[in-house]
Amino acid sequence: MLVSVVIPAYNAEKWVAETIESVRAQTYKDVEVIVVNDGSVDKTAEVAAEALKGSAFPFRLFEQTNSGAASARNKGWRAARGDFVQFLDADDLLEPRKIELQLSNAEQVKTADVIYSDWQKLIWDRGVWKTSDPRSPEIRDDGLADILSDRNFLQLSSLLFRTNTLQKAGGFDSTHEPIEDVGLCVKIAITGGKFVKAPSDGPMSCYRDLPRSFSKVNHTRFIESCIKNAKLAERYIRDNQIDDPRVVQAIVDVYFTGARFFAGLDWRRFEELVADIESLSPNFVPRAPAQLASLSRVFGYRNAERIAVLYRKGKGFGTNLLHPAAN
After folding, report:
1. Residue range 37-46, pLDDT digits in tens
2. Domains of the chain
3. How much is the pTM?
């Protein structure tokens, strides 16, 4: 069973050779590698070509003008010949047993659209890569709520996609970066795709948490992309008249995170998100933080958040409302 490893690469000359080496080290050998150089202006293409030279597996190196990771991944998987696709960003790593482990259960492989395992971050700290605690997502049969939850975040390299599942879902939305990987998983879930976990004794992939990651560079766009995923899920449950409290809560949680981000920053956007929340949960009270929840029960969430913003800005009446003992 051939697995196509698709590596989108943009200005990744520092990392791409090590990433490719983690593919060469796989105990599962029936693989092909497709590197898509996304208009890099450094030596990414040359480094990747050198790292691939002499490989026992077939490989191809594509070039495109800079169009983003989603576009590069789409170019890669659409050229893939494998039954499954392993996406691997050019600075991430696979554990040697990753692909073999995920394909080892024949019955599981027959029914799975997406196979996933535990993963972890590598964090750059004063010149040294340090490992974070492993992340262990659990996606239940009705997986949409779990996919939207940060607690169950499916980091892209931890997944193995059936190729015809990608075809059915249409691949990545190239207008939806970042978090387009979560958007893809949402699309697969709402078309009935099955997510199956391959248990392991540790993380099977590593995500390098670099300072240039999109969530750090452009946090507003990151939040808006999360909201877009939730909107996709909301349209699905409304169109299909699905009343699933877990999914509704997961969508509301995303909107609430967005509302908190925009409160005090963009009140118009804040009001739009509050309206989205109230359309799904008319008497919404946040579960945390505790003080905001208490204020929401008295004043309603909209007003409670405004008070919280004033408090954070150090305004006197906000401080007194949140801390009566200060009077």
Report:
1. 999 999 999 9
2. 3-214 (3.90.550.10), 219-326 (no CATH)
3. 0.90
